[in-house]
Each structure stands twice: as structure tokens, then as C-alpha cells.
């Protein structure tokens, strides 16, 4: 739509980068507010957020580069232009999770409780980030003739021009916002620590698997094109989240019996 928000000479503000940054800031604010509500130190969340964002950006960018290596092989300097678009969520989730666990263990902070604080922030951050994708044209949809189809016309857009496409970025943004609402509701009525985080992994992976069916951007696939990398990872994350649900729920029940 409008990859560049405004340009002054050689200086440009990219819409994608603005929305991603807004998502980060909004997510941090939400997590810090929740930490205050439950009596935790918000400064810990602020420090943790710095490491999570750094690991997430590096991991998601590297994953995107590997998926589109041929393009970056021809234009290696484009590797560093992440503000134009090109961050893969699953690529950032794994390193951010590992760095987060490392940080919490190092500072002897309760892992599951902290994850429940920050995971809704990941969802609301995605909601803003996907709007950035929409303006940049990345993560675009397949061709369609639906009334709400979108047509990209800006030559700087990453989407095919002049073609009616599924607005998959808007689908994803709305999905992330709905997940956020579900998570903050679960957070108030949760039965055990880690329930919010496990719910996020389950809800996101299920919906991401479905949304992939409407994507039209070129990506690596498995099983002769039957599944995208994101769909394969989604299946793994569904299984992982169900195991976590079962383990933590069983642990809670055993603890109640002992008491």
C-alpha cells in the first residue's frame, strides 16, 4: 500500500518499521502494566524485553534470509534493510524463547509466571507488526476475487502489483488481536502458572496453520508443496503446547492432592 510513510531527500521513514516499533513499545507497556498489577518488578520486564526483542529481530531476519537466500545473494546489502519488511515470526520465536529462559534462570526469576506476563504482549505486538506487513506488501496473499481483496499499486511494494489478493496481513493482524483478548481473559482466571503461555502457543499455531492456506508469497515447502515451513512448525508447536498443558495441569492436580 504505502511502504514509505514519508521521505525527505534521501531520508525515509518506512511504514513497516514504524508499525513494528509501535508493536514492540505497546507490548512492553502492556507487560509492565501487568507486572505492576500482580506485584512484580516492572524493571525486570523492561530489561527482559530488550533481550527478547534483540534475539527476536536477529532470529526472524536470519530465517527470512535463509528462505529467500537467492535474492540476498544477488543483493547482500539488502540483508540489513529489515525496516523495509522481512521478519519471520517463527524464526524469532525460538531464539527469543531460549534467550528469555536463559535470562530468567540467570537472575533466578520464576519462568512460567513471567511467561504468562509477557505472552499477551507478543500477540498485541504481532497485531501491529502485521499492519506493517500490509503497508510493505510482504506476507501477501493469493489471488482472489473477493469483495475485500486488495490491489497493491506502489512500485516499492513487496507484493505483486495490479492483482487482487487476499489481505492476509489484515487477517493475521485481526487474529493476533483476538488472541490477545483471549489471553488477557485467561490470565485473570488461570488455574496454573504457564497456562497463558501454553494457550498462546496453541492458539497461534492453530490459526497460523490456517492462515498459511491464503498466503501467496514464495516460500520453501515440504512434501512436494503440501505444507509450508510455517505449517510444519505450527504442527510441532501444537503438539508441544498440548504436552505443556497436560504436564502443568497434571502437576497442579498432584499438588492439590498432596495439600
Uncertain segments: none
Order of helices and strands: EEHHHHHEEHHEEH
CA radius of gyration: 19 Å
Strand order of the largest sheet: 1-2
Tally the structural domains.
1
Task: Determine the N-to-C terminus distance.
Answer: 59 Å
User: How many E-type strands?
Assistant: 6
> Per DSSP, what share of the residues sits in E-state strands of 2 or more residues?
5-15%
Taken from the alpha-carbon principal axes, the silhouette is globular
State mean pLDDT (0 to 100 scale).
85
Share of helical residues: 55-70%
Query: Quick one: biggest sheet?
Result: 2 strands, antiparallel
Q: Structural class given helices, strands, pairing? A: mainly alpha
Q: So how many helices?
A: 8
Structural overview:
With 259 residues, this protein is mainly alpha-helical. The chain has one domain. It contains 8 helices and 6 strands; from the N terminus they run E-E-H-H-H-H-H-E-E-H-H-E-E-H. Strands 1-2 form a two-stranded antiparallel sheet. Strands 3-4 form a two-stranded antiparallel ribbon. A two-stranded antiparallel ribbon has the order 5-6. A hairpin with a 2-residue loop joins strand 1 and strand 2. Helix 1 packs antiparallel against helix 5. 38% of the residues are buried.
Defining traits:
single chain, mainly alpha, two-stranded antiparallel sheet, 8 helices, globular
Protein topology:
Blueprint: E1 4-8, E2 11-14, H1 15-37, H2 42-67, H3 69-74, H4 89-106, H5 111-136, E3 150-151, E4 164-165, H6 168-189, H7 195-211, E5 221-222, E6 227-228, H8 229-258
Antiparallel strand pairs: 1-2, 3-4, 5-6
Helix pairs in contact: 1-2, 1-5, 2-4, 5-6, 5-7, 6-7, 7-8
Amino acid at each position: 500500500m504505502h511502504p514509505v510513510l514519508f521521505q525527505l531527500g534521501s531520508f525515509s521513514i518506512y511504514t513497516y518499521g514504524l508499525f513494528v516499533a509501535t508493536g514492540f513499545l505497546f507490548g512492553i507497556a502492556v507487560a509492565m502494566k501487568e507486572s505492576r498489577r500482580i506485584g512484580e518488578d516492572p524493571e525486570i520486564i523492561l530489561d527482559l524485553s530488550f533481550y527478547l526483542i534483540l534475539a527476536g529481530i536477529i532470529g526472524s531476519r536470519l530465517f527470512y534470509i535463509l528462505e529467500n537466500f537467492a535474492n540476498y545473494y544477488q543483493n547482500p546489502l539488502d540483508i540489513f534493510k529489515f525496516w523495509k519488511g522481512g521478519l519471520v515470526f517463527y524464526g524469532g520465536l525460538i531464539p527469543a524463547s531460549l534467550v528469555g529462559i536463559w535470562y530468567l534462570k540467570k537472575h533466578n526469576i520464576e519462568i512460567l509466571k513471567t511467561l504468562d506476563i509477557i505472552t499477551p504482549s507478543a500477540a498485541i505486538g504481532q497485531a501491529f507488526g502485521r499492519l506493517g506487513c500490509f503497508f510493505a506488501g510482504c506476507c501477501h496473499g493469493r489471488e482472489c476475487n473477493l469483495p475485500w481483496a486488495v490491489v497493491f499499486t506502489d512500485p516499492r511494494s513487496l507484493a505483486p502489483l495490479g492483482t487482487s489478493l487476499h489481505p492476509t496481513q489484515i487477517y493475521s493482524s485481526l487474529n493476533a488481536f483476538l488472541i490477545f483478548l483471549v489471553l488477557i481473559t485467561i490470565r485473570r482466571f488461570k488455574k496454573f502458572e504457564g497456562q497463558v503461555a501454553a494457550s498462546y502457543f496453541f492458539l497461534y499455531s492453530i490459526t497460523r496453520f490456517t492462515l498459511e492456506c491464503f498466503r501467496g508469497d514464495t516460500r520453501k515447502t515440504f512434501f512436494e508443496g503440501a505444507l509450508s515451513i510455517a505449517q510444519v512448525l505450527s504442527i510441532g508447536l501444537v503438539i508441544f503446547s498440548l504436552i505443556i498443558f497436560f504436564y502443568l495441569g497434571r502437576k497442579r492436580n498432584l499438588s492439590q492432592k498432596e495439600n
